Amino acid sequence: MNDSALENLDFTSLGAILFVASLVAIMMHRVKLPYSVGLTVAGIGLALLPVQVPMALTPDLIFFVLLPPLVFEAAIQIPWRPFRRELPLLLALVLPGVTLAAAVVAGGMHWLVGWSWLGAAFFGVLIAATDPVAVIATFKTMRVERRLHLLVESESLLNDGVAAVGFAILVSIAAGGSAAPAEIGIELVRNIAGAIAAGAATALPLILIAGRTRDRLVEITLTMLIAYGSFLLAEHFHCSGVLATLTAGLIVGNYGFLGSISEDGRQGVRNHWEFVAFLINSVIFILIGGRETQMPILAVIEAAGTATLLSLAGRAVAVYPVMMAFAKTRLRVPWKYKHVLFWGGLRGALALALALALPASVPERGTIITVAFAVVAFSIFVQGLSIPWVIEKLGLITTSGEADLGSARIAETDRG
Predict the structure, then answer these.
(1) pLDDT digits over 382-412, tens only?
(2) How far apart (Å, rounded) are the C-alpha atoms in residues 202 and 230?
(3) Which of the listed CATH numbers 3.40.50.10240, 3.40.50.150, 1.20.1530.20, 3.40.50.1820 matches domain 4-415?
(4) Share of the chain residues as helix, strand and coil, in percent rounded to the nearest 5
(5) What is the pLDDT of residue 5?
(6) Gap between the Cα atoms of 236 and 234, Å rounded
(7) What phi and psi values does residue 211 have, to the nearest 5 degrees?
(8) Cβ(248)–Cβ(72) below 8 Å
(9) Which residue intervals define the domain Cation/H+ exchanger transmembrane in the entry (predicted)?
(10) Contact 120, 362 (CB under 8 A)
(11) How many Å apart are CA 335 and CA 298, to the nearest integer?
(12) 143: closest CA among 405, 413, 410?
């Protein structure tokens, strides 16, 4: 991790951000809108004030400080048995799905906007990374069916990991690496296998150590080490930190909660990570709003509009045809779920981190960053604000006993 990840971290500004985030969360809860939208608006408002918030949204800050806890918190909520049952469908969504989505966007930006193939490919991969924070928050307030919640959250986590791997491969090619399919395939397998190994190698020993104590504060501390340690270990060996932390989170949320972590510690761990996720999402979306005001979006409005339409088309291609292949299997997905997976494929922090991390050798680097911020803004304000209406119109609200993914996690733990 570079020192730049923390050099702009101002604790006075952080306190102000958390105060604003608390007020926004209260207001958004009352009006029943995703708080990520309110946070982004608050970030824009703060950026327009005479007193500026001296915190910059940098790729290092996102990758090494903010992203690992978000991935870990989501992963520990996922119950293994339903996840394993849905895994063939999920892998189809994130392997061919991400490839198809990236190809649609890359081809469109090359032929319609005139970007180089390298720049278009980078943009296609980074914009394929989804971040449905607003959707998950809506699920928790509107109580959708448990399988839909599982599919959206799990697909997003795996999607982010695959997109990050694809981006790393493109960085290697941009630096002069081989673009031959065989070499790319080998690198893909090495990256994914290395990430899974790093996640397991970090989580398993520390979970065993957690089993030697019943002090919930120690147990919480060990999960913090697992979240960041798995990410940093994988990145050290040039593998996907996202996939590593996802693997570690699944291990902690399933194997760890089934015995190694004490009964008192389990609830403490859940409460701690729920707070951490709120804290980090607050910082991310306020900083996104602030950065939006610095982007010359009007100067690239035509490219931004084209990119937004292509990103929606790519998401549609990644969801509908892939799920059609499972129409006659036990994993068939209702059309209502498909619509939510399509429209709920918001873009967020990871897409922006990848955009900001583009190599300087990419000819369209500055334009790509601005267009990425425009697409993210569209997904937050248009898709994020409309997703509650979509869920209600599709009739996907259910009773509390069938809704909460966290209750499935607890029930599975109790059975274990």
Answers:
(1) 998 898 889 889 988 876 545 555 555 544 5
(2) 5
(3) 1.20.1530.20
(4) 80, 0, 20
(5) 52
(6) 5
(7) -70, -10
(8) yes
(9) 19-392
(10) no
(11) 37
(12) 405
